[in-house]
Amino acid sequence: MKDLLLITPPFTQLNTPYPATAYIKGFLNTKNISSYQIDLGIEVILNLFSKNGIQKIFDKEIDIETVSENSQRIFALRNEYSKTIDQVISFLQGKTPTLARQICSMNFLPEASRFNQLDDMEFAFGNMGLQDKAKHLATLYLEDLSDYIVENVDSDFGFSRYAERLGKSANSFDDLYSKLSDNQTFIDNFTLKILQEKLELTQPKLVCFSVPFPGNLYAGFRCAKFIKENYPHIKIAMGGGFPNTELREVKDKRVFEFFDFITLDDGEVPLELLYENICHPEQSEEPQYKRTFLIENKEVTYKNNSKRHDYKQSEIGTPDYTDLQLDKYISVIEIANPMHSLWSDGRWNKLTMAHGCYWGKCTFCDISLDYIKIYEPISAKILVDRMEELIQTTGETGFHFVDEAAPPALMREVALEILRRNLVVTWWTNIRFEKSFTRDLCFLLKLSGCVAVSGGLEVASDRLLKLIDKGISVEQVAQVTRNFTESGIMIHAYLMYGYPTQTIQETVDSLEMVRQLFEMGILQSGFWHQFAMTAHSPVGLTPEELGVTPNKQETLI
């Protein structure tokens, strides 16, 4: 039996656990509160993409005459998929590396439309990149199967998200509520079977769902509904990135047919108080809450009556990955780009150098929210202590520091501490393109094991960078990226288009600037996305300053 069951609902990443539950479990350990954590996403994927799961997919009736030519091809090759799926998954888990030679022979895997866009394999992987080439081919194989599932079995399926459209807008609960009223989907059947097994195993008093993205929301609600119907004595809470940004003014009472509590921002104190209220109600005459929504007197009520302060970063403990099936995550390579593959290839221990953002001025960012606004770095000694502890408990020496923006001075101290202890680690993180990243600092970071950084260039235009209050210039970015590249550290740039007042010419100029950075070899990867105005950013709070008139809708959920 466990007091708390921590769940990440389907789906997030295939290659490594989303770290929220590991962070919370590490904190709960410091309070001697028993907990168990599961990543439902990877467990559902492994059940679905198995010989038995594939058989169930192909057993679903389809009208072979009306489906796409691609689906007809996959269905015709169904025996080949059933024959190879377990071996492919084992290979992507790193258990059978010798299979790479068969995969690369190009006559082992059944092929459908994803293979039509095959990159120039020689150019992308060279003569020696056998394992990476095989991972890429195996990824295309899985994506073909995913295309078949979306067309013929469950249109909401996606490897790193599920029914994302239902969570993208929090203006109304109607669509999501309607979907939850329908029968369980094909994917739900896999999800709820595993959930039931875990509930029987742990018999928790409180189940806590971490919902980081819109693509986790539906599955979180579906699981909560199952618990309410079958285990009504268990209390259910939701926290994480999605409620922190989208449910800060939740009003719809129907939400609480599924969840007893919704907590906001840092979860340590809110969950500690929920634990005390549920497991030790005799200790307090009046229940204490921290940043928590619940139903009181038949109305949605926000309770923040506890005077308990949030914990310092030095007090929350080391993330604990116990219970998660670390050896079963699968590495995929969707795009033949060594920098881009870091997000999907390899198992990374996730840590944070600093809570919040030390800059905290960018006008497109949710800088009014505590997770960005409250900046608190951790000492290099504590951070490297945690790295060593995670190496001992997980056996992994790869680290992804998931900061809003890692501070250059702290990165320097961490690098020196790693070198002082003679640790051999591989790490990467997110940065701002600060002038502080000199050639000497970049070289030091490389020596300590840094292999890559990602950072927001946003718009390659000095006028817009000033308007965004980014605190950098295009010339500065070019110099910093050169410093990193010459030190042997890869760089990924986040870019946006459509920022208010941006002209077509400025957009074209930005494209050209980025093209030149690639041409010069000082940028290895980039991703463009359309500007989206968020309610808690300076642009969203005062849109009139940029001449923007937002089309506001009343938030009902």
Top keywords for this entry?
globular; 7-stranded mixed sheet; 557 residues; 21 helices; alpha/beta
Ends apart, CA distance between termini: 34 Å
Q: Averaged pLDDT, please?
A: 92
Could you give the order of strands across the largest sheet?
2-1-5-6-7-8-9
Helix percent band: 40-55%
Task: Describe the 3D structure.
With 557 residues, the chain is an alpha/beta fold. Helix content is 41%, strand content 14%. The chain has 21 helices and 17 strands. The strands form 4 sheets. A 7-stranded mixed sheet has the order 2-1-5-6-7-8-9, with helices on both faces. A 6-stranded parallel sheet has the order 10-13-14-15-16-17. Strand 16 (490-497), helix 20 (504-519) and strand 17 form a beta-alpha-beta unit. The longest helix is centred in the first third of the chain and has 23 residues, at 130-152. It starts with a strand and ends in a 16-residue tail after the last helix. The model has no long low-confidence stretch (mean pLDDT 92).
In short:
The chain is built from 21 helices and 17 strands. It has helices at residues 20-30, 40-48, 51-59, 69-76, 78-92, 99-104, 121-125, 130-152, 174-181, 186-202, 214-230, 241-246, 268-279, 370-373, 380-394, 408-420, 439-447, 462-468, 474-486, 504-519, 538-541; strands at 4-8, 35-39, 157-158, 161-162, 206-210, 235-239, 261-263, 292-296, 299-303, 349-351, 354-355, 376-377, 398-401, 426-431, 450-458, 490-497, 525-530.
What is the secondary structure topology, with strand pairs?
Blueprint: E1 4-8, H1 20-30, E2 35-39, H2 40-48, H3 51-59, H4 69-76, H5 78-92, H6 99-104, H7 121-125, H8 130-152, E3 157-158, E4 161-162, H9 174-181, H10 186-202, E5 206-210, H11 214-230, E6 235-239, H12 241-246, E7 261-263, H13 268-279, E8 292-296, E9 299-303, E10 349-351, E11 354-355, H14 370-373, E12 376-377, H15 380-394, E13 398-401, H16 408-420, E14 426-431, H17 439-447, E15 450-458, H18 462-468, H19 474-486, E16 490-497, H20 504-519, E17 525-530, H21 538-541
Parallel strand pairs: 1-2, 1-5, 5-6, 6-7, 10-13, 13-14, 14-15, 15-16, 16-17
Antiparallel strand pairs: 3-4, 7-8, 8-9, 11-12
Helix pairs in contact: 2-10, 3-5, 10-11, 15-16, 16-17, 17-19
